[in-house]
Each structure stands twice: as C-alpha cells, then as structure tokens.
Design goal:
The chain is of the alpha+beta class. It has 13 helices and 24 strands. Helices cover about 25% and strands about 25% of the residues. The protein is globular.
Length: about 500
C-alpha cells in the first residue's frame, strides 16, 4: 500500500457500511457556526507595527493595493502573499488602512485582511505513515473500495478515481458514527449532509473514504455528466446578444476564440476547434489538478534541477529544495516554471505518466474532445495538442476555483521554504489591459506565441484565446473590446 497505515477511521468504515448501506441513509450534519468579527471590532485592534512582515488573509481572494485609502486600485495580490508594513495608518470608511510594500510597489491595504507573519519551518521529511497525495490504494472497476484521501477537493477525488479506472457512483465517510455520503449527479438535497459537514469542496488529508465504483457503461458520457455540481462550470446566465453590425477585428492567429463565462457561449471563433500545440497554456490543467488533488500546504522535497533545463522558463528549483505545493503552484503560473510542473506532477501522481493520465482524465470529465496532453508543462511533443475552445473552457473551469483565480491574477509571490524566492508574473496582459485578471501565456517553436486571457467588465467575465499569434496582447485586447462593446447581457 502506497500510503502506509490507514487512519483508525477506515477500520470502522466497513462495519458501518454493512449496517447502514442497505438503507441508503444519509446522516444530517450540522456545522458549528463561526463567530463573526465585525469590521468595527477589527478597527479597534492595534495597527501592525511598521517594519514587520504581514501575510494577506483574504479567504482565497486577492487583496487590493490602493494609491490612497479611498483611492484607485494599483494592483491585487493573492491570498497568502507577504507584505512589509510601512509607516502610516488611517481609518477611512469601515476599514483601517495601512501603508505596505510588496515587490516593487507600495500603497495602502485594509489591515483587517493582514495578520503578522510567522515564518514556517519547512517540514519535508516524509515517513512511511505520512499521508501522500491521492487515494491510498488500487481501485476496482466495480465494487467497494476503502481508501484514505491525501487532501484536495471533492472534484479531485472524482478525477483521481476515474484516472484509476473507478467511475464513482458514491463516496461515503463516517461522521460521529453515522454515514455521510455524496452521490455524483444527484439533486442538491441528497448531498446536503456531505457539504454541511465539509463546508464545500475541500476534503482534508487523512479523511477515510468508502468508494462505490461502477457507473454507467459509457464512462466518458457518465463522467462528464456527473461532475460535482460545486465544481462544474455552471450556466448562470443567458448568452449575450450581438447588438450591432460592427464586425470583429480580423486577427492573424492560427486559431482564436472569445467565450462568455456565465453562459459558455462562443462570441467569436476562428478555427476554434483546430488541434494545435498549446505550449505553456497546458499548465492551466496542471494547476487545476494541483489544487484539486493535493493539500496546498503540504511540503514537497524537490528532485528537479532547473539548471539542466536549458532554454526553458523555470521557477528556479534545485534538488533538495523544500517548498509548499502553493509555492510550486505560483512558480508554475507566474514564472511558467517547467521545473515546477514536473515537481507538482511527480509529487501528486508519483510519475509524469501517471499525472498525464490524470490530465487527460480531466479533459474527459469536462467533455473536452479536441485535446490530448503528453506532458505537464507544454513543451513540444508528438500528440500534445489542444484547441482554442478547449483551453477557454479549461480556463473557465479553473477560474471558478478561488485558489486558481487568486494565483493567476497576482503580480508577485514570495515563496518561503528552504530558501526565499520572490516571483513576478510574466503575463504582461495584466498590466496592459485594465479589466484583465488572468490567465496564462505560452511559447514554443511549434506553438508560436499563445495566450489565454480573462477580463471582467460591468460584472461580466469573458475569456479570449489566441494560438500562434503575432500580437497576442494587442489582438486579445481588440477581441475583448469588440465583445464587450457590441454585446448586451440580459
């Protein structure tokens, strides 16, 4: 068994199943309320001391940096980013604002979302009994399997199981001696007890699970139709209507697309289903799997040597480095680190090949049929292709995940592991287009310059994809402006 001894919870799980499963009962679970701290109470606390380091705690969102307490936004920094506190504190409106510096910028942040930073000592030693990512053992095609989960999300459990040959029809765990279950594709009330207990998609490391394997015969159709409701890209609005006769600007990209987030509707398309080399846009899928399939706070001992990756974009990893998964995630998406992609893949799945299997399972799960991945980073390889449509839909899926959205919108991240590493986002579109909030750039000889961008205007988010473009930022801006200016949302 890859994960060593399982928690005691698993030992009691089968006994509970035998007595409870025939009745298909689901236990009700009542989450304990968390006392709220009012903004007034937060303001009454003492301000942070100038010269100290603070960490952003914005509940998975990014925190705005302003040029003045009531001024314009300068940037937005990811949850978990480190800032240096400067002299200056003012109460304006419902918040107290403090001057901070982060990277090369300085400005004001609401200090309700800052807390003193205490350096964490890296803990990369893994004993035989430590919980590792994923599920703890082999999975049957049909039948019951008892597993321990290594941390991540409900969607991660579904994807990991499907990659292992188990098309899930039910997931169960024991809470206070009673059975709590999740049934993919069932109405919300059936799964109410599960989400009441876990509070959302996140399922902690070490959770004992009983999996029921063996869904409908058509695995691809079944899997995509039973993606957890909490993670599938939902249709939340009608497709916008084209209100003018103004044509979109012509672009010279090999393929291009603009889609509406709420409806998934295609507003502009050119060769949008053509399979082409995607370059580092591949890392969108790698990032999704890292978030869904690992505990982002887990420490990873790296074995990848970026110094051997001549000509690659890298985070800068060296053998023996110790960083948390969330640091590798930022190295992946901000620096476009091919070394970070390999480190994530090998930590989560055990090998590059096993991770690629998970990547292609994700495509199957989401019903994306134009793509096939051969590696986790996007370097040119035989059969490694994607389409503008599939990449737009992958980005749409990823942006529903708070950790993904926060990562791709951040300008800078400081990793604090066995050494300190500050990384800046190489996505220049974030600075050149005022409504931009993601997502990823790419380049290889075969792919040319590629880009997936997201932008929010008047409460509506659009995604643009350009493959093999001579001017990816300029053409992305033209297509987004045309889409926003010539469509109406009902």
């Amino acid at each position: 068994m890859r994960h060593g001894a399982r928690p005691l919870l698993i030992l009691s799980l089968l006994a509970v199943l035998l007595s409870v499963l025939p009745t298909s009962a689901l236990a009700a679970a009542t989450p304990q309320p968390v006392p709220a701290v009012s903004r007034t109470e937060a303001i009454r606390t003492e301000p942070l001391v100038a010269g100290t380091t603070a960490v952003i705690r914005a509940d998975g969102s990014c925190l705005r940096l302003r040029d003045a307490p009531d001024g314009e936004r300068l940037d937005c920094f990811a949850d978990g980013s480190l800032v240096t506190v400067l002299e200056g504190a003012e109460i304006v409106g419902e918040y107290r604002w403090q001057r901070v510096s982060i990277g090369t910028q300085s400005g004001w942040m609401a200090d309700e979302f800052l807390e003193p930073y205490t350096a964490v000592t890296p803990s990369c030693a893994v004993s035989a009994s430590s919980t590792r990512p994923g599920l703890s053992g082999a999975l049957p095609a049909r039948g019951i399997s008892i597993q321990s989960w290594g941390g991540g999300t409900l969607s991660g459990i579904v994807n990991t199981a499907l990659a292992g040959g188990c098309d899930l029809s039910g997931i169960f765990t024991v809470v206070n001696g009673a059975f709590v279950g999740y049934r993919p594709g069932s109405p919300a009330f059936v799964n109410q007890a599960w989400f009441a207990h876990f509070g959302g998609e996140q399922v902690p490391a070490g959770t004992g699970l009983l999996l029921l394997c063996g869904g409908p015969a058509n695995q691809a159709t079944a899997a995509s139709s039973r993606v957890p409701a909490a993670s599938a890209p939902l249709t939340t609005g009608l497709a916008p209507t084209l209100t003018t006769g103004v044509p979109a600007s012509s672009v010279d990209s090999a393929a291009a697309i603009v889609i509406d987030e709420a409806s998934g509707a295609v507003l502009y398309g050119n060769n949008e289903h053509r399979a082409l080399a995607p370059a580092s846009l591949t890392k969108i899928a790698t990032a999704i799997l890292a978030i869904e399939g690992t505990d982002l706070d887990a420490w990873v001992t790296n074995e990848v040597d970026s110094r051997r990756m001549i000509g690659s974009s890298v985070m800068g990893l060296q053998p023996g480095d110790c960083f948390q998964v969330r640091d590798l995630l930022h190295g992946l998406m901000l620096r476009s680190g091919n070394d970070a992609a390999l480190a994530i893949a090998r930590f989560e799945a055990g090998s590059d090949a096993a991770f690629v299997n998970q990547m292609n399972t994700l495509l199957t799960r989401l019903g994306l049929t134009d793509s096939n991945f051969a590696n986790p980073h996007g370097l040119d390889a035989v059969g490694h292709v994607s389409s503008a449509y599939d990449l737009a839909m992958l980005a749409r899926y990823g942006m529903q995940i708070p950790e993904f959205r926060s990562t791709v919108s951040s300008s800078v991240w400081t990793a604090n592991g066995s050494r300190r590493m500050t990384m800046y986002n190489i996505n220049g579109f974030l600075n050149s287009y005022k409504d931009a909030d993601g997502v990823k750039t790419g380049f290889t000889d075969d792919a040319g310059r590629t880009f997936v961008g997201s932008a929010m205007r008047d409460g509506h988010r659009l995604y643009v994809v350009l493959l093999n473009s001579s001017d990816r930022y300029g053409q992305a801006a033209e297509l987004l402006d045309w889409s926003f200016d010539n469509h109406s949302w009902n």
